[in-house]
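Progress report, Aim 2. The chain analyzed during this reporting quarter is listed below.
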Amino acid sequence: MTESTNTKTRNQNLELRDLAWKVAPNLVLSFKYAWAGVSYAFSTQRNFRIHTVIGTLAVSLGLFLNISAVEMAVITLTCAIVMVLELLNTAIEAVVDLTVKQTYHELAKIAKDCAAGAVLLSAIAALIVAVWILLPPVLRLIILAY
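Predicted structure tokens for the chain:
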């Protein structure tokens, strides 16, 4: 890299750092920052993409099966909880990595493992909810087809 490129990159990083601690001056900017977090997770986190696809399939299947509004709400909220926990897991991992840099620390491992465990438990719960709500109408469709 040339000196001018290094200076430009350094200045851009300083501008971003200046914005990092400030409160968004308006609601639109707040949504923009929030969407940037979701976009970051989607583009960098394989598990977030997997949860997004599975959640979309579960909601689509619920719509196709014409399940009740309450059941649809439960499916949607359960999928959202898994995705929210995946976002929090990503945030915790980033903060831990920022703090410990390239070194190993047992407390950093515990923080990251616990955050990942929260996502795992929510995903298992979501699977159980999907089985209870979506499996009976799917089985009825299969039986009617034969």
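Residues 1-44 form one domain. The mean pLDDT is 91. These observations will guide the mutagenesis work planned for the next reporting period.
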